[in-house]
């Protein structure tokens, strides 16, 4: 009967690692720094020989990194024989390949393999899954939120997103609601939440910086006499000279639809400081509105801003979808008609593609450059004669992408409808704001397409 594995804390410098493994470990500075700070989190697998030496079987790279980081001790799982490691791997792999295995079971199996030192790349190779799938499952399993999601029967993708927002109660509640009621919108909502989180973090950093500089922050400012705070650009001094930023005593922060922040110099309490508005309010006889917006106008503006934000998030999700689509072994069904239709019906769109976007879509290595006529897709095609159809699809998709703006939903075009409908046919889940474009066709157009 085989002895049960035992966990020991050993000095990594005393362990025996294969010479070739030491040579090819590909240790990066970031990896060594991580081991130095956090230690080896998952045990390496080793066998103790008759002479007492401990030979590492799995986890050689972590062992080498621990030596470089001068870690005094690392966790080592001692097994009875070298064959025992392969037996454990084989058993888990057989479980993974078993019919009817849920994604939660599969993630558990990957986790078991990782605990005995098998890398994500090795797991993918042994199980026939993609490395991305394995890495996503392991990342989800590394958090309580991800593990809980898998326990509810949710997919690895859903669990990974829940893990990403662990600790954010509002985001978690919103994501759970989407998974239960509108699962096809999950990627879009998750991207919106990422954008929102990034914007909030940038705003907090900006506020901290301004406060450290001793600057007061106001919530509003205007250009006319009925405003409590005046933009510096809309103020003049009591001697009639225009105000400058040196006259500012406060700052207003504005945020655009992309979540990017700008600061504006403001004179707060200008009436008591001897300043005056640069202009008088005048509607030119046009009947332009004076005073604050009505509640209806505020609601309309809020809708416009929210839809623009959704369109920005959808752009990221959409392009990721195309990139994933073009990473497959086979080109998507119907790509020939899609590309020829684009070239013949929307020629200016196809020819005006963005080379960087197209290059990223087809998985080309894109390095930023300021060179004139820089085009990563062209460089990619010049270097590779394989899979030209994938480059062509990327070119056409990038052409469409270049013409889709944040507010394209306001005046939907047949060009964008053709593109989005094709992506949906290929499996893309359109966002609610993209559906406004897809559903905008006239009955006559629908009949023509059906024919």
Annotate the secondary structure layout.
Blueprint lengths: L5 E5 L8 H5 L5 H10 L5 E5 L5 E5 L1 H9 L5 E6 L2 H15 L6 H13 L4 H8 L3 H11 L2 H8 L4 H9 L4 H13 L4 H27 L3 E3 L10 E3 L3 E2 L13 E6 L5 E8 L7 E2 L17 H31 L9 H11 L1 H5 L3 H7 L14 H8 L4 H16 L10 H12 L6 H7 L4 H8 L1
Helix pairs in contact: 2-3, 4-5, 5-7, 6-7, 7-9, 8-9, 10-11, 11-12, 13-17, 15-16, 15-17
Describe the structure.
With 451 residues, the chain is α+β, with helices and mostly antiparallel strands. Among the domains are: 6-80, Conserved hypothetical protein from pyrococcus furiosus pfu- 392566-001, ParB domain (Alpha-Beta Complex); 215-280, no CATH class; 306-450, no CATH class. 52% of the residues lie in helices and 10% in strands. The protein has a four-stranded mixed beta sheet with strand order 1-4-2-3. Strands 5-8-9-6 form a four-stranded mixed beta sheet. Strands 7-10 form a two-stranded antiparallel sheet. Helix 5 (103-115) crosses helix 7, helix 6 crosses helix 7 and helix 11 (186-212) packs across helix 12 (295-325).
């Amino acid at each position: 009967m085989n002895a049960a594995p035992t966990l020991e804390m050993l000095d990594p410098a005393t362990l025996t690692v294969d010479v070739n493994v030491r040579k090819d470990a590909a240790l990066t500075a970031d990896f060594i720094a991580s081991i130095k700070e956090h230690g080896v989190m998952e045990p390496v697998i080793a066998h103790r020989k008759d002479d007492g030496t401990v030979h590492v079987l799995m986890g050689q790279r972590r062992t080498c990194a621990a030596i470089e980081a001068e870690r005094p001790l690392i966790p080592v799982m001692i097994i009875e024989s070298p064959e025992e490691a392969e037996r454990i791997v084989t058993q888990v792999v057989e479980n993974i390949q078993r019919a009817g295995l849920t994604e939660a079971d599969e993630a558990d199996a990957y986790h078991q393999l990782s605990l005995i030192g098998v890398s994500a790349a090795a797991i993918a190779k042994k199980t026939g899954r993609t490395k991305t799938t394995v890495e996503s499952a392991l990342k989800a399993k590394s958090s309580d939120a991800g593990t809980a999601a898998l326990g509810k029967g949710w997919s690895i993708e859903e669990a990974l997103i829940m893990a990403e927002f662990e600790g954010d109660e509002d985001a978690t509640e919103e994501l759970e609601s989407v998974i239960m009621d509108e699962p096809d919108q999950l990627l879009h909502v998750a991207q919106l939440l990422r954008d929102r989180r990034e914007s909030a973090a940038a705003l907090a950093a900006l506020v901290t910086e301004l406060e450290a500089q001793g600057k007061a922050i106001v919530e509003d400012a205007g250009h006319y006499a009925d405003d409590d705070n005046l933009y510096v650009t809309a103020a003049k001094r009591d001697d009639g000279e225009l105000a400058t930023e040196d006259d500012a005593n406060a700052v207003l922060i504005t945020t655009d639809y992309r979540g990017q922040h700008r600061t504006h110099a403001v004179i707060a309490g200008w009436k008591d400081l001897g300043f005056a508005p640069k202009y008088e309010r005048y509607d030119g006889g046009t009947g332009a509105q004076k005073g604050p917006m009505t509640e209806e106008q505020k609601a309309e503006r809020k809708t416009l801003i929210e839809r623009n934000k959704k369109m920005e998030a959808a752009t990221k999700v959409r392009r990721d979808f195309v990139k994933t689509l073009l990473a497959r072994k086979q080109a998507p069904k119907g790509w020939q008609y899609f590309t020829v239709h684009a070239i013949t019906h929307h020629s200016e769109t196809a020819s005006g593609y963005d080379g960087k976007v197209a290059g990223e879509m087809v998985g080309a290595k894109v390095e930023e450059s300021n060179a004139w006529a820089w085009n990563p897709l062209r460089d990619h095609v010049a270097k590779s004669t394989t899979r030209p159809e994938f480059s062509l699809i990327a070119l056409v998709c990038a052409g469409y992408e270049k013409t889709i703006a944040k507010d394209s939903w306001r005046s939907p075009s047949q060009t964008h409808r053709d593109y989005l409908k094709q992506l949906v046919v290929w499996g893309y889940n359109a966002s609610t704001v993209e559906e406004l474009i897809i559903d905008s066709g006239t009955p006559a157009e629908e009949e023509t397409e059906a024919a």
